[in-house]
Amino acid sequence: MTCGGGGGRGWRGVDATPSPPPPAHKDAATASWREAPVTKGDAWFDAAYQESKNGIIRIDKNGATFAFYRRVNDDVATFRPYFYFYNNWFSWKNKRGTDMNIYNTYAGALDRTASDRWITDSYDDPGVGFPRDMGGGWMGVDTTPYRSSATACDEVMAGSGFTCNEKRFTTTNGYTLYLEEAVIKVSPPSPPM
Predict the structure, then answer these.
(1) Distance from C-alpha of 163 to C-alpha of 192, rounded to nearest angstrom
(2) Minimal CA–CA distance to 71: which of 105, 114, 109?
(3) What is the rounded distance in angstroms from the CA atom of residue 80 to the CA atom of residue 157?
(4) Cα distance between residue 138 and residue 172, in whole Å
(5) Helical (H) or strand (E) element with 100
(6) Sheet holding 175-185, edge to edge
(7) Burial 161-178, CB ≥16 within 10 A → b, else e
(8) How far apart are CA 140 and CA 38, in angstroms?
(9) CB atoms within 10 A of CB 33
(10) Is the pLDDT score of 113 beyond 90?
């Protein structure tokens, strides 16, 4: 499935024209984030993800917030996302609407807001990481030097019917991943007394 952007309603189901973020309201939530580069390796990345409060991954592209990934079935304690994002954006255990959803905003991901979810997906090309062809380029990095064992990717993808390809591409095309650390409620300042 091709998910190219362009004018009008794009692959994220929203107007493709960038707009400024809405102002924070009194119950808006933000988070503390830790950068999760491919060089940290699968063991660190997956453990840090599993320790996160809500299992939300923030994806930035060229320095701007791009999307938020959240599991549907709350299997954060066992899911291992490293190879999905950096190498093999497979549908196996990662199907939109069944296993996970991708949101336009952090608040949407926190609240699992249906109107904030991406409306399309594209999977199953070994060696191509997130967002495959849904976002103008993809992550696909040789993770061989960063994996915990020679069979790590195959262990994660066991039963998928796909073979891991860890050496297909060598670029992240401007994407940076961040793992959620803690949710922080943002409140407006109190009026002066």
Answers:
(1) 62
(2) 109
(3) 10
(4) 6
(5) strand 100-103
(6) 29-35, 175-185, 56-61, 64-71, 100-103
(7) ebebbbeebeebbebbbb
(8) 10
(9) 18
(10) yes
Q: For residue 106, what is the enclosing H or E element? A: helix 106-111
Residues 6+ apart with CB under 8 A from 39: 146
85 token code pair: 């994002």
Cβ within 8 Å of residue 24, ≥6 positions away: 30, 186
Q: Which helix (H) or strand (E) holds 50?
A: helix 41-51
pTM of the model: 0.73
d(CA 97, CA 50): 20
Reported as a single tens digit per residue, the pLDDT across 50-94 is 988 889 999 888 888 889 999 998 788 889 999 888 888 888 899
- Cβ-contact 180, 53 below 8 angstroms: yes
Q: Is residue 180 within a helix (H) or strand (E), and if so which, with residue range?
A: strand 175-185
Identity at 58, one-letter amino acid code? R
pLDDT of residue 167: 63
The confidence score (pLDDT) of residue 157 equals 79
